[in-house]
Prior knowledge:
The chain contains twelve helices and no strands. It has helices at 2-21, 23-40, 42-45, 83-119, 121-135, 139-150, 154-180, 184-191, 196-207, 209-233, 244-251, 261-288. The protein starts with a helix and ends in a 10-residue tail after the last helix. By secondary structure, it is mostly helical. It has a single domain (2-292), classed as Orthogonal Bundle (MetI-like fold), CATH 1.10.3720.
Amino acid sequence: MAEEEIKRRTRIQDVTRQMRKNKSAMFGLGLLFIIVTLSVGAPLFAPHDPHDVDLDRQLKPGFWSDDGLPGFYLGTDALGRDLLSRLFYGGRVTLSVGFVALGFAVGMGILMGISAGYFGGAVDNVVMRIVDILFAYPALLLALVVAGTLGRGIDKAMLAIGIVYTPQMARVVRGAVLSIKETEYIEAEHAIGSSTWRIIFKHVLPNSLAPIIVYSTLMLATAILDAAALGFLGVGAQAPSPEWGLALSLSRKYLVTGAWWAATFPGIAILLSVISLNLLGDGLRDALDPRLKGGAKL
Length: 298
């Protein structure tokens, strides 16, 4: 037991060391930390109420213009609401959708992947046929279908995105389980009469965590992008929510009228979030499995 603990600590130290050497991964982690901090701490950092409407200050520019209003650093939207404050509060909504959807997908994916990979046979056939059916549709199209069926709203968007990414996680977990269950230490556990659940929770699942963690990070970036897309298309967050995708959708028409900031800054927020998670995910992939360096991405 002590030897296993030492190996585990050594492995964590190795991963941490590799991550620190990866400048792009550390940049991604730092950027993500800033985004999450500003979003979670929106009540502390936001200079104004994000729902404070004042038509007298609609579509005013920010700090770059002499026509800007004092205290409204990134300007205002079509209803005169402070854009910076809405970006902070909108991050809470968009990131929440991504994290909740990811949690659903990881939980269901682990359950389906372990069932298919470890038990095999009929269970594997049934689970993987369900996965194949879900994979037959583009992710965003399937999310739109699910969200359209369940109805509009942020909670429906969370569930829709979670369902879309469940089969991807299921395949990742199944692949890891298939390779792990053929190892000698699993055969040794069978030989000494260990129960199936002990083998799964003590050996199979812990040793499958590396690909799960890496793929979860990369999937979170896409989930946030899809959450913004659903908001943009009107089936996700609904007004007056400051969600980034919805803000982008409502303000896109002002790009051609000169009020470019109303749509540009929500778009930049989405872009930075996705970039930070992709950089972090790539770094975790290289640190957790050096064999993947320079190879195909997950």
